[in-house]
Every structure is written in structure tokens, then in C-alpha cells.
Amino acid sequence: MSAIRYPVAASAEEALSSPRRAAREREAVQAADGPVRFVSEDVGPPFATREAALDAYPGRFDDERPGKPQPAAEDRFCALVERAAKTAPEPVEPSFADGRRWPTPAKPPATVFRVSVSYWRIGPAEATPPPDQARALRRRVESVGLSAAELRALANQPLRPVRPQQPLDAGWFERPAPEAPHILIPDD
């Protein structure tokens, strides 16, 4: 089985028709003559049903219907994803009726199908996050002038511990398991 060869392009729409392909990052850098980053983005209009999306993009997805074209192994960079049509549910007021505080939940949100394209995006990496975490940065004066990209990068960075984790405190009737010393087991 061959590796998937992802398009090298500047946007998701361009990736659907880009002749430049690369399986690895170093190949993508050579094809783009500059820095690249791997991204997955939605493209095209939302579709009400899966079949409508499969008919609009023939040969891009695995289609179990008989007689439909199938993508080659190296061309499987598109995925059909199901997303909620609305981003947030409607707010509800507490009802306090029949011994219940909240009303019966509404029906689940409507969903739509979108085409997600994974590709090598040409251009520099995202904005680098500030060196501090949000809990330390929000108390400082310089946090007032952060741009939207810096705030987004700050919100997406992983949390770091404030101090190193202390070793396990084993009590009198606990001891480490011989096969997994990081787990304490009771010893009566």
C-alpha cells in the first residue's frame, strides 16, 4: 500500500486541483520552495445528506454504492465529515414544572456534511505563543495589547505545570506494585 500524497497548495480550494503532491514534509518543502505546515480545512458548501456530497465530489471518497468511482490509495486526502448546522444551542429558561427544574431537551441539532481537505499549506508557521501561560500573562500590563493571532495561540497551547510533580506519598498500608512502580496497591 502506498502512502497518501497530500497536495501542496496555498488554500483548501486550490488543494483540490493542485498537481503538486508530497507524502512527507521534506518533499512538500522542496515542492513549495519554502516553509509548509500540515492543515485540514473544510471546503465547499454544506450538504444536507451524505449522498448529495458523494454525488457532488465523485471519486474523492470511498463510496459503497455500486458503480461509483473509488479514489486511488494515494489520493485519499479528502474526508467527508458531519458537523452541527448551528454552532450553539438555543438558551432555555428553567421551568420548575412537574418536579423538574429544566424542560425536556429539544431534539438534537441538525447536521450537515462538509468536505475536509488535508494538505500541505504553503507559508510560515502560525504565530508563536507568548512565553507565559494565560494564568500568568493575564495579570500583566502587556497582555492588553495582544493581537487576535497571539490570543488564539495562547488559548491553543498546552498547559504546563506550575511546579514539578511530587513523588507518590505511600502510606503505611500501601506499597508500589512490582510490575508497575507508579501504581500504589493496598497491603493489608
Model description:
This protein is an alpha+beta fold. It has 5 helices and 7 strands; from the N terminus they run βαβαβαββααββ. Helices cover 17% and strands 23% of the residues. β6 and β7 form a beta hairpin. Strands 1, 2, 3, 4 and 5 form a 5-stranded mixed β-sheet that branches. It has a two-stranded antiparallel sheet with strand order 6-7. The mean pLDDT is 83.
In short:
With 188 residues, the chain is α+β, with helices and mostly antiparallel strands.
Quaternary state, please? Answer: single chain
Biggest pleated sheet: 5 strands, mixed
Shape: extended
Low-confidence regions: none
Which percent bin holds the helix content? 10-25%
One letter per element, helices H and strands E, the order comes to EHEHEHEEHHEE
Distance between the termini: 55 Å
Number of strands: 7
Mean pLDDT equals 83
Can you lay out the helices and strands and say which pair or pack?
Elements: E1 6-9, H1 12-15, E2 21-22, H2 25-32, E3 36-47, H3 50-56, E4 78-84, E5 111-122, H4 134-137, H5 148-156, E6 174-176, E7 184-186
Parallel strand pairs: 1-5
Antiparallel strand pairs: 1-2, 3-5, 4-5, 6-7
